[in-house]
Design brief:
This protein is of the alpha/beta class and 441 residues long. It is built from 16 helices and 15 strands.
Length: 441
Amino acid sequence: MVFPQSDIVLVSNGPGELLTWVYPLARRLHRDPVAARLHLVLTPCPHAHGEEAGTAAALGVFDRIIPARCFWRLLLRPRRHRRWRPQGVVVFLGGDQLWAVLLAARLGYRHVCYAEWVARWPRWCDRIAAMGPVAYGRVPRRWRPRAQIVGDLMADVSPEQGSAPPVPSAAPATIALLPGSKPAKLCLGVPFMLATAEKLHQHHPECRFLLPLAPTVRHHDLLRFAGPQNPLAATFGASAVRLAAPSPSRPHWSLCTAAGVRIAVVDRHPAHDQLRRCTMALTTVGANTAELGALAVPMVVVLPTQHPQVMRAWDGPLGLLSRVPLLGPVITRVVVSMVLRRGSGLAWPNLQAGRMVVPERIGPVTPTQIAREASVLLRHPARLETMARALRQLRGPGGATAALSAMVVEVLRLQVHCRRGKPLPPVAERSVAEQPVAERP
């Protein structure tokens, strides 16, 4: 379909959402094609690095990118910021849902909200694309005619919907290390992961290690977080590190420790091909767990709470409150205590399943303990395969990106016949999971 007088505005905030939600949808919209201009608006985020716009520009799929620093100016005077077309749709894909609501109102566009767990402003949503039954069930009955289950966008990260081919037993194990992308997580995660890799290397010298860089992190940032500039670096006992440049025999940058451990640093975004080949991963809490789950990579999720400043990297009200002067440390101690009592359910696969699919190690854990657990898993590959099989079953069928794209195109088509401010007709009473297999892309 052709909508020459329309704009599609994708709203997001962080590098994780850009690579796993925004980019696949943008590519799908280009494939359809809709002939509408495609824009990306980045919203304010307390954990942003300021380089998200550059990351998005490198993807090469947007007609215009508006960085987060320009968001307030766009919201206050949208017509002076640029010439917007008469009709369009704003699509929420990460961050604070309120920003997408306000932007759609200011532009006079329709609003589509991708709700992973809950749609917070259903009254101002023309369409609610629910990830699954949980998000759909949380939509008030009054607004449920606007909602539809489209599926998990993360399920489309991996094109392989069947079982992954077994790794030959003779092949050396590859361990992925994912310390996070925010400075508050990296200052803890980088030295912790390096120390764990050294401990694991002592018992499994044949193991290979790789560290996928987040789009907003540079190679030399790793040295800063692993070196004496970071007060936490000496806490875990990791040896000194140096950065080795790529060579004909080693195509990636490498972190080399004094103990003889070499960690390949993957700077390709997204690093799905490399992650999919990994035997297992050691990761922090966050979007990493959703990405690994979508790729069916077995993992151990680690949250060392002996350093409560890691709470400052959390999103939402808890992360904001933990940074409040004087009151922040008290709130952090209370929240950490609550997390310890809860004991599980912080990793995305476990949240989605409502049970322990992947192990979570929360508390005053040490690199020695995590290395010991990883060593046990490596000696029992059947456990890793059971975990991978559960992750593949959990992610469900693909097609969420195509379903969301179809919803956006439908809103563009309907707004031609519905005057501004008038509700759109209810969505069809059928989710992507209920469609016949032949209808799924």
